[in-house]
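Section 5.1 Outputs to date
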Amino acid sequence: MVAREGVRVTRGCLCAADKLKGELEGRKLICLATAHPAKFPQVIKDALQLTNLPNEAKHPAIEEAKTKQEKVYLYNHSNLEENLLKLMTKDWNSKQDNRK
């Protein structure tokens, strides 16, 4: 996602703009995106007064993501570049060590 001057541009919006650029002829494009309901299972269950989420409210990619392990790193943003370089170097070094 690209954020600039309070504007958020998603990959989907960029793809749409790329496909339509020939037809736009210099006009501006406004692309609105919505979240899949599966991202908010508790809201759906509460609204429908259900204990289990119906299959229609599920998305395969989201269900698969629930089975994946997540890594979370918290950083002080004032040192973001330095911390990212350290993390990437550490990851690179561990991969090199595993190859030996």
